[in-house]
Amino acid sequence: MKLNSKILLSTSSILAFTAESVFATGSDNDNAIIQLDKIMFELTVSRNKLGLVGFYSPEDKFYKSWGHDYEIAAKILKNRNIPVGLVNCDEHVDFCKEFGYNGSSFVSVFSDASNIYDFDEKYETKNFVQHIINKGGKDMSEFKTIEDIEKFISNSRKPVVVSYGNEGLKEKFQEIAAKNNERIVFAAIAKGGEGESMNVQDYLAVYPTGAETPIIYNGDVETLINNEDNFMNWVTFGTLPLVGELSEDNLHLYANLNVPVASFFYSDNVDKEIIMEKLESLAKEYKYRMVFLTTDAERYDSSLKNLNMKQQLPAFCIITPHDNKAYGFPQVDDEDYKKMSGRYAIDPKELENFISSFVAGEIPANEPSEIVHDEL
To answer: How far apart are the first and last CA of the chain?
Structure first.
C-alpha cells in the first residue's frame, strides 16, 4: 500500500462524530472489529495513535486465511483501547483503490494520520498483537555506554540499527525511527555518553538478529540519514540474507520492498545446488538494487501461473512489487521440455546476461494476471 496524497483527514467529518463512535461495532457486541467506510476510517485514524485496518473482499481466499486471526487480535487489542478495523472493498471500491487495493486483501498499520504502512509479517494473531504493542513502545532507545548498548543488542529479537555520536543527526534519526520501528529497533549513544568522548561521530551500524558483527556504513552518514528511502534500503538490505528463502514469515516483507525481487523457483534441492553459487554472486553484485530469493514451487504452486509463466522447473522471474510487473527468464517449448525428462536447468551465464539486460531496461515486462500477498 502506498499512501495516496488524496487520503487527507476531513476536519468537518471528524467533528461530526464522538470518540465513542470509533469503537462502535454494530449489533454484534462480541465482534471487536470496526466496519469502516471512508469517514469512519478518517475518524479512527485521527482519534487514535495506533491501530490496524484491513482492506478486504469477503470472497478473497487470502482474507479467509487470516480473517479469524485478525478477529481474535481485535478482541485482545480492544482491551488496550487500540482499534482494529476492516474496509469492505466490494462496497467501497474507490476508497480502497486510493490505498492500492487491487483485488488482494491486506492489512495496514497506522501510528498517526500521516504514517500508514503495510503489515509485513505473517498474518497471525500473535504477530498482529505483538507488532502493535511493540509499536507503542519507544521509537528509539538511548544509552550512555558502549557496554549498555552491546548488552541491549545481544538481547534483541529484532535487527538493531545504531547511531553513535553526532548529536546533530539525532532529530532526523529519531524521525525515521518513529516511522520504521515496527520491524527494526533503533538505538543511539545519548548525548554525554561514550559516543562523544570516543569521537565516533558519523558512525552507523546495523546488527542483524543474533549477529555479533555489525554491518557498518562507510559513506557519508549525514547524507544517508537525510534521505529516508536510501537509509531504510541500506538498513533493510543489511538485515536480509544474501539469498533468502520465501516463507510465510517473510513474504510480506519481500512483497513490500521498493526494489525488484528476483525469485528462483525450484522443484528440489538439486535445482538450487546447480544455481546457488551464481545467485549468491549476483546478489552481491546487485545488492541495494534488487533482492534474491529461492521459492519452493510446490509449496507456492500457483505462483508461476499468476506470473504468466509455464510450469517448467526450475524457473526464474524478476518481480517489481510497486507496479505488479513480471520479467520472466525465457522458457523452452513444451515439447522440448518434455524431451528433457524433467531435468531442465537454467544456465548460470544466461541468467547473468538476463539480469544484466533487465537492469539495462532491455527486457519486456508482462503484466501478471494476479500477484497476491502469499505468492511471489
So the answer is: 16
Distance CA 153, CA 143 (A): 11
Q: What is the pTM of this model?
A: 0.60
Rounded to an integer, what distance in angstroms lies between the CA atom of residue 139 and that of residue 175? 9
User: Dihedral through CA 2, CA 180, CA 321, CA 156, nearest 10?
Assistant: -150
- CATH number given to 11-135: 3.40.30.10
Phi, psi of 135 (to 5 degrees): -65, -30
Given a contact cutoff of 8 angstroms between Cβ atoms, the answer to whether 232 and 279 are in contact is no
- The angle formed by the CA atoms of residues 365, 367 and 370, to the nearest 5 degrees, is 140
300-317 in b/e form (b: 16+ CB < 10 A) is beebbebbebebbbbbbb
Report the CATH number of the 243-359 domain.
Answer: 3.40.30.10
Q: Kindly report the CATH number that applies to the domain delimited by 141-239.
A: 3.40.30.10
Q: Which amino acid is it at 362? A: E
pLDDT digits (tens, 9 = 90+) for 132-188: 877 776 678 888 777 888 888 887 778 889 887 666 787 888 888 887 877 788 888
User: Which residues, 6+ apart, have CB-to-CB distance to 42 below 8 Å?
Assistant: 9, 10, 13, 14
Q: Do residues 366 and 328 touch, judged by C-beta distance below 8 A? A: yes
Q: Which amino acid is at 83?
A: P
For residue 296, the cross-strand partners are 266
Beta-bridge partner residues of 116: 110
